[in-house]
Amino acid sequence: MKDNLDVKIVRLEPLRVATTLGFGEGPEGLAWDKLMQWAEPRGLMTTTPPPRLFGFNNPDPMPGNPVYGYEVWMTVGPEIISDDVVQVKDFSGGLYAVTRCTGTENIFPTWQKLVAWVENSPHQSARHQWLEEHLKVGSEIPESEFVLDLYLPIVG
After folding, report:
1. Can you list the alpha helix ranges (DSSP code H) found in 21-91?
2. What is d(CA 102, CA 136) in angstroms, rounded to the nearest whole number?
3. Is 14 helix (H, G, I), strand (E, B) or coil?
4. Distance between CA 68 and CA 60 in Å, rounded?
């Protein structure tokens, strides 16, 4: 992985999202499976434009404990309402430092580099939600080709 980061400052506009939560060891797959099993029969994965897909730890992993949570978001229109599988909520958006990460083995090191980049930049960290935008989705994607944009909140 390159030591230098290509970082863009991005204002993420408000989003209406359907969310699911996975909890356990490796909760990402649990959360994604739940969301896809809900979205695919409704045709939500084949809309134009396609939905944006985000995820983040919720709650964060704790040292020595392999159990944590992962929440996933899919952008949806006003016709989608909460049900027994998804919760629909509005996210107010915000300003972010964003960089791309390829390969699951690079997620944590890239987050560390992005945090260091912000600490050494004129920008200050903010408190709105950290996000991982999933750009390639599907169980058939090899881990080495997994692509995320990492969104680190900054003051705007």
Report:
1. 27-39
2. 10
3. coil
4. 6
Q: Confirm if 116 and 108 have CB atoms less than 8 A apart.
A: no
Q: Which residue has the tokens 């949570």?
A: 69
pLDDT greater than 90 at residue 137: no
pLDDT at 156: 75
**Rounded Cα gap, residues 45 and 43, in angstroms:** 6
Peptide bond into 59 cis (omega under 30): yes
**What sign does the dihedral 98-153-136-140 (CA atoms) show?**
positive
Q: What is the pLDDT of residues 70-124, one digit of tens each?
A: 999 999 999 999 999 999 999 999 999 999 999 999 999 999 999 999 999 999 9
- The whole-angstrom separation of Cα 15 and Cα 52 is 9
Arithmetic mean of pLDDT, 45-73: 94
Is this structure's pTM higher than 0.90?
yes
Please answer whether residues 86 and 38 qualify as being in contact, where contact means their C-beta atoms are separated by less than 8 angstroms.
Answer: yes
9 contacts 95 by C-beta, under 8 angstroms: yes
